[in-house]
Amino acid sequence: MIKSFHPPQRILMGPGPSDVSPRVLEAMARPTIGHLDPAFVQMMDELKGLLKAAFKTDNELTMPVSAPGSAGMEACFVNLVEPGEKVIVCQNGVFGGRMKENVERFGGEAILVSDDWGTPVSVDKVKAAFEAHPDAKILAFVHAETSTGVRSDAQALCKLAQEYGALTIVDAVTSLGGTELEVDAWGIDAIYSGTQKCLSCPPGISPVSFGPKAVAKVQARESSVPSWFLDKKLVMGYWGGEGKRAYHHTAPVNSLYALHEALVMLQEEGLENAQERHDHHHQALKAGLEAMGIQFLVEEAYRLPQLNTVIVPEGVDEAAVRSALLNNYGLEIGAGLGALAGKVWRIGLMGAACNRRNVTLCLSALESTLVQMGAPVNAGKALVAAEAFYKG
Ligand SMILES: *Cc1c(COP(=O)(O)O)cnc(C)c1O
Hints:
Elements: E1 11-13, H1 22-28, H2 38-55, E2 61-65, H3 69-80, E3 86-91, H4 94-105, E4 109-114, H5 123-132, E5 138-142, E6 144-145, E7 150-151, H6 154-163, E8 167-171, H7 183-186, E9 190-192, E10 206-210, H8 212-219, H9 232-239, H10 253-269, H11 271-292, E11 307-311, H12 318-329, E12 331-335, E13 344-348, H13 356-372, H14 382-391
Parallel strand pairs: 1-12, 3-4, 3-5, 5-8, 8-9
Antiparallel strand pairs: 2-10, 6-7, 9-10, 11-13, 12-13
């Protein structure tokens, strides 16, 4: 007989999912109702309003796609890229590479602008790409590259795209709720995010927003959108006009309760306060890690507070450290991806997981593990440095 599944208690300080607040888990356990029930439709309208506030946009076409962040990515590319169109794609980590895949699968021509992993997208290189390809219709880039812990200058990149008459597709999966993000003020045309990073919801939903120029482009398409499920024209009938809904697919009712609750919590805290909290605990973690003698991969000016990529000390078996943290402390941190596999750890401070208790636990657990392995770190310094930061 197979028994019920009871997951172990963990503290999630990796690249996502992040710790989910008990309030959000409780919301998810509320009774399932029909997805066209008037009470659910009203909740959806509130959810749209909360998402607009989180994205800082008035875009009518702002909605949660019923699938994870990767589907939000695909929703943007499948609707906005038409066969034969040139799209400038910035790649400075894993997720830019997926954008290129999306462009090519939907018949577009990807003009790749590559930067080293661990550095931000170069605005100058993007400008040169526009000069070489003035017919490029879209600029696509990742705001917060979770594979490296780098923040790129979304505002400058969007301004550049506007100068060259191109639309922008922005990946904000890791930035939403953790880093300054202004959809309308920066002129972002299409943006997608995820629930399981700084919004601290269970994974599986992707908030997406399309601005007026993006909507006009979808409406003027000559070819039909090559995905039925993600076709925004069809989804608009479901999530569009206030209070009225036509069946498109069965919404993930309970997951949307969770997202509603997480966004209510974000509203209570205040978006700016949430961003400051991420920065504050990042500073404490940094003070502790540096006192231990651990170095960051990314230059200070481009670091993401919610995703700290640090270099594994010489001679240390990085996977053994992660296993020890998980087995002895219930603490999950992330490994390096792609070019950085085996070389770095990715320590997340996302959403509900971004707090003083977790910073303290992570520093002491990491120090104790590294000291036991005989790694070259300064013992006894990390907590003192973090506490000194918190005392101000
Ligand atoms: C996590 C992530 C994604 C993918 O989201 P999923 O929910 O895993 O599909 C896309 N882009 C970035 C930057 C991410 O961090």
